[in-house]
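Researcher: Structure prediction, please.
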Amino acid sequence: MAIQYYTSRDAGAPQIELTRAESNNVQCSIIAVLDAILVTGYGSKPGFGWTKLMTSDVAGSDRTVYQNRSAHGENMNLIVQSHKTRTNGFMMQMADVVNSPESYEHYSDVVSLCPSNSGDTYWYAVGDERTVIFISLFW
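Model: Predicted structure follows.
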């Protein structure tokens, strides 16, 4: 698959929106955005070809695991979750082995995005079936 470029400004692109979770924390819709970019696509753009491997069964959690398609048979797992205490924030982490969204091994540090103010949110993604670069801007 060729490298694709997606942005929140594309026609039909999902937007990062805020909702109140069962736990009464505000969560952003990062999972819906990544579902569209990585798996299903939107508008006339196909998804990058990743798989939505599993979603958390824990009440109030929106933790989701995506898996890429490696040419070498060693797939990578991306764990994503809305930030539980920061409005419109989210966390991402890589792991080699995932038993469940809460149990994984050989993992990276967590990348946490927590905006300092509210306002417009834009995202950009470049990737293919093996790699994704995701950028989110708040102002």
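Model: The mean pLDDT is 82.
Researcher: Thanks, that helps.
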